[in-house]
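Structure tokens please, single chain.
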Amino acid sequence: MKHLEIKNTAKKYIARMPEPQKAAVIQAIEGLKAEPPEGDIVPLEGQKNRQEKWRLRVGGHRVLFKIQGDTVFVTHVIPRGQAYTKKTIGGKK
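Here you go.
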């Protein structure tokens, strides 16, 4: 089982979500602890060779995360339309 670390930006967004969506996102994030991680997970475009950044689809939201060793770092929980901007995934403007 992996250790889970959630950044403050993701925690704040989850706290503001309506209860049904919040419960679904929390359950999906808990599935990331499994070996292998559970859920609709794919590497972010441009990351296929390095496989550092991943996305987890949870309804209309995306959970962006990295796996380093035994730790899963959840960096963002955001609506689908905002998930793939260069600012969010760490690309250049």
